[in-house]
Write a structure and sequence with these properties.
With 417 residues, the protein is mostly helical. The chain has 3 domains: 47 residues; 228 residues, no CATH class; 103 residues, no CATH class. The chain is built from 17 helices and no strands. The N and C termini lie far apart (62 Å).
Length: 417
């Protein structure tokens, strides 16, 4: 059937049928193409605009639609007093918690047309960062895995499973939502223990690990942007500004601002991403200082979590734990369960490996474990399905990451919750 015949067929369909067809798209670009080409489709779309846009966003994001819909309705929390801010945070957390309780599709049921349009922008923005995340990680993987050393040009956008796409999308969206709830400041929250109890308790520890890893990735991306722009500006001999000074002057934590900056620079240099991949900052390990927000660096950066967040051994019989079961966006990633061998932990981020006392004989083992953690996090292990994670574990950079490798570095002496 040629394109002309397809369009004639569309024009002959009832509006309700057209709405069902339009709602089944998993791409806003494809949706727009059909609407532009078919007057009947345009009429049907306009009659159910909010519902169609919500369905398409849900087809793309899956469970992450819950986070995206909230982000479409949220802006940075600013109040005149600390008490007002705390009340606003409490209200935002209550709303978020209620949304996260939705365990099955439809993830969001009803939104108005304005929110649906905002959701479209949020979904496109999320996809932009999903593509960046995947591009850099798989370019790095292509050089690391023995199996692909002969072919360093791995496809920049490998086919992600719906679970992998959902986990990456969720981390991007949740990080931005927590930034908004926090007030968009680079420093730690004013009352960090309360922030941990109120806000971080929305998520499982492995979900906080995903958010932390995403913030580190964005931090490294912005450092690369700053380095690249400093290397390009001014005649030779001009003194470039200090990296962090440049960053503070020219960048904000807003995802849409980061995306705008990236797109402008890509328009000027189509090889920009290739340049980034050749630099140290996006060619390997994750540094504790490269994240954007202090609060995402690790679970124990500022204070030890309360006993409500204490570690405990899972009720699962560790000896018979089934690490072959595939995960979804609502269950622990395979690599997380594999690394902790069925245990639970209160640790995440750079603090997943607990530091021994300075005079400990265990110092060398600690340094090795910390190095392995940096690689494990940079490989994005908490985002991948079992098959991909097992392939990545064959890399020389992850040779120390055997099943249960994180178990000795947790707080097993802490009281259980």
């Amino acid at each position: 059937m040629n394109k002309h015949t397809q369009l004639r067929t569309l024009e002959s369909l009832d509006s309700d049928v057209l709405i069902m067809i339009l709602s089944a798209f998993d791409s806003f670009s494809d949706l727009a193409s059909v609407i532009r080409a078919s007057p009947a489709s345009l009429h049907a779309f306009l009659s159910a605009k909010a519902a169609v846009l919500l369905h398409v966003a849900s087809n793309i994001l899956g469970p992450a639609t819950r986070d995206a819909a909230l982000l479409a309705q949220t802006s940075e929390l600013e109040r005149s007093s600390h008490e007002e801010l705390q009340r606003a945070v409490d209200e935002a957390v209550l709303d978020y918690r209620a949304r996260l309780r939705v365990a099955n599709a439809p993830w969001v049921t009803i939104i108005d047309a304005d929110t649906a349009v905002a959701l479209t922008h949020v979904t496109r923005l999320t996809q932009f960062f999903v593509d960046l995340f995947v591009y850099f990680h798989f370019r790095h993987v292509a050089h690391e895995l023995d199996a692909v050393k002969e072919n360093a040009h791995l496809p920049p956008q490998p086919c992600l499973s719906r679970t992998e796409h959902g986990l990456i999308s969720q981390a991007i969206l949740r990080r931005q939502l927590l930034v908004y709830i926090h007030g968009g400041k680079y420093s730690q929250p004013l009352d960090y223990p309360r922030f941990v109890r109120t806000v971080f308790s929305l998520f499982h520890t492995w979900e906080l690990e995903q958010i932390s890893d995403m913030d580190h990735f964005l931090g490294q991306l912005l450092v690369s942007l700053a380095d690249y722009q400093m290397s390009e500006q001014g005649p030779e001999g001009n003194r470039s500004p200090v990296r962090w000074q440049f960053w503070d002057i020219h960048y904000t934590p807003e995802l849409k601002e980061i995306a705008k900056k990236m797109k402008r620079m890509l328009d000027l240099d189509s090889h920009l991403l290739d340049h980034f991949c050749q630099w140290e900052v996006l060619s390997g390990r994750i540094s504790a200082s490269s994240g954007l927000f202090d609060m995402f660096k690790g679970s124990h950066r500022f204070t030890t979590p309360s006993s409500l967040h204490g570690s405990q051994q899972s009720a699962i019989d560790i000896a018979t734990a089934d690490f072959g079961v595939e995960t979804s966006t609502s269950s622990e990633p395979w690599a997380w369960r594999d690394a902790l061998w069925g245990h639970e932990t209160c640790r995440w981020g750079c603090d997943l490996v607990k530091a021994p006392p300075p005079d400990s004989a265990n110092q060398q083992d600690y340094e090795q474990a910390r190095s392995s953690l940096e690689s494990w996090r940079w490989f994005g292990m908490v985002f991948w399905d079992r098959k991909r994670a097992q392939q990545l574990k064959r890399s020389s950079a992850l040779k120390s990451c055997k099943s249960g490798w994180l178990v000795p570095w947790q707080d097993w002496d802490m009281p259980s919750s």
